[in-house]
Structures are given as structure tokens and as C-alpha cells.
């Protein structure tokens, strides 16, 4: 008797990825390098970015209204900015403080007048921001009617802008890979593997982030994807958009107030 392969629909995989994301964020907020669980939690968390890029490419391909999709991503990228900065730095994205404040890494600061007031601006955004830019990149990639210089220059520009976001550059490249080679799975996973190796070469050795090896779990998880959407109830559509900033606010409150 032939055994049936485990089959997961899009919703089921998305919830697995969301759980992996929460585990990763708990590790960033509460587990120091070298502590028990540091590697394994971040290893699991590496599922998040590439899988989100995969389903973004799928969403782009199937959406009936690109502008509506882009506006939704852009809006939640903006709404999640305060939550992401709060989780990362324990502050609001734009803050005015009296006296000199040595800002943490990734913060721009301006001194105002002679009162030594400091305006802090945190130019760091969450993964929805990077996914928003990735969606624009997919649209631009398909605009073959544009001059090559404008099209390619725009893609490079979006890549530079993504540096301000979580999963910078690579999520954009992953999304382009999954979109461009969706009909050639062998080539798609080969290029994904090359991108993952590039990420690991820098983050794994230079920044001692060996947990980047977790990106190689992505093909294994998506092997079980049956290409079915699952329930189309609006709850599944909106859950991630709402859950993402809320869980960052909650974890940030625990991290900085308790």
C-alpha cells in the first residue's frame, strides 16, 4: 500500500513560519550569544524571510488588484515601524529628548538649538517594509516595456532602500528568484541555494551567525506544500498583518519594561 506524503496548504505553512518568526524574535530579545538555545532558536527563525518572499511572489502572481495589494503592504509597513523600533531600541521611531543621548547603532540624531535637545530618528523597519519593496521589485521586473537602464536601475535602487529593513536585500532577491524561475524549480532552488550560501558566507563567518544555515530548511518545508490555499476566510488573510506589530509591541514591553 502506497504511503501518502504529508501535505501542507498555504495557510498551514504560513502559521509554521509565523511561529518560527516569534521564536526568532524571542531569541533576539532575550537570549544572548552563546547561551543555551541561541543557535537552535535562530536556526528555526531562518525559515521566516525566505518563506515570506516565496508567498509574496505567489500573492503577486495571483492577485487581481496589484495596487490594492501594494497599498496594504505599504500601510502595514508604516504601521509596524513604531512596533519594530520599540522592540529593537525601546523607543519611538522619532523622539525628542533633553540633554545629550548617545543613540544606539542604527540611529540618526540631530542637535536642536542651544538647549542641547536631541531629535532621535530610527531609520530601521520591519520585514513588511522589505516585502513591500520586494513587491515593487516584482512589478518593475515585469515591466519589460521600460528602458533597460530605468528598469535595472530601479531594481538596484529598491535593493539599496531595503537595507533599512529586516531581511535586507536578500528577501528582495529571494522574491525575484521565486518569481522568475517558478516554472523551473530545479533552477529556482539552485539559485536560492547560491543566495543562501552568499548570505551564510557573510553572516555565518563574519558576524558569527552560523544559525544562517537554517535557510536551507526552506526547500525542505516547501517540499510539503501542496499549492492549495487552504481556507479563504478573511482571518487568514489579515492575521499576519495584525499579529506582526502586536507581537513586537508585546515582546518589546517585556524586554524594556520588565
Largest sheet: 3 strands, antiparallel
C-alpha termini separation: 56 Å
Looking at the structure, what is the overall shape? Answer: globular
Number of strands: 3
How many helices? The count is 10
Oligomeric state as shown: single chain
Percent in strands: 5-15%
Mean pLDDT figure: 88
Explained architecture:
The chain has a three-stranded antiparallel sheet, with no helix packed on it. The chain is globular and about 50 Å long. The model has no long low-confidence stretch (mean pLDDT 88). A hairpin with a 4-residue loop joins strand 2 and strand 3. It has 258 residues and is mainly α. It has one domain. The chain is built from ten helices and three strands.
Task: Briefly summarize what is shown.
By secondary structure, the chain is mainly α.
Secondary-structure blueprint:
Layout: H1 10-30, H2 38-45, H3 48-62, H4 66-89, E1 94-97, E2 108-112, E3 117-121, H5 127-142, H6 148-161, H7 170-180, H8 185-206, H9 218-222, H10 234-257
Antiparallel strand pairs: 1-3, 2-3
Main attributes?
single chain, 258 residues, mainly alpha, three-stranded antiparallel sheet, globular
